[in-house]
Amino acid sequence: MERQASDVLLLDLAGLATFDDYFVIATCLNPRHMIPVAESLDETMSLVDIDCLHREGTPDSGWILLDFGDVIVHLFTDEVRQRYGLEQLWSAAPTILRIQ
After folding, report:
1. Is 30 helix (H, G, I), strand (E, B) or coil?
2. Are 73 and 66 contacting, i.e. CB atoms less than 8 angstroms apart?
3. In terms of Cα–Cα distance, which of 90, 89, 87 is closest to 76?
4. Are 74 and 65 in contact (CB under 8 A)?
5. Radius of gyration from C-alpha coordinates of the chain
């Protein structure tokens, strides 16, 4: 199933994980699309005094992780999102928001 760039999930991990409270999982159109999305998230969070504590992955890998403390954002290409299957791995986590 091919996802669109707007396919975004917000999962509530409180009570399920000790490392954070929320996962945002989003599909980007392609690796080049990940760069402005990650930069925009970082800039927007900075406006409300939330800094990115850690960043992993690269656009070329099809996955970027941005750790904002209580919220971890996963940006994927569609293929890599399917391979990692975070929705299935964290299926016990309630979905707070889904944008399709």
Report:
1. coil
2. yes
3. 87
4. yes
5. 13
3-state class (DSSP) for residue 41: helix
Residue type, 91: S
DSSP state of 18: S
pLDDT digit string, tens, across residues 64-92: 999 999 899 999 999 999 999 998 988 88
| Pair of tokens at residue 55 | 């960043």
CA–CA dist 96, 22 (Å, integer): 9
- d(CA 14, CA 9) in angstroms, rounded, equals 15
Question: Which residues pair with residue 9 across a beta bridge?
Answer: 25, 98
- Euclidean distance between CA atoms 45 and 48, whole angstroms: 5
Closest CA to 23 of 80, 100, 78, 88: 88
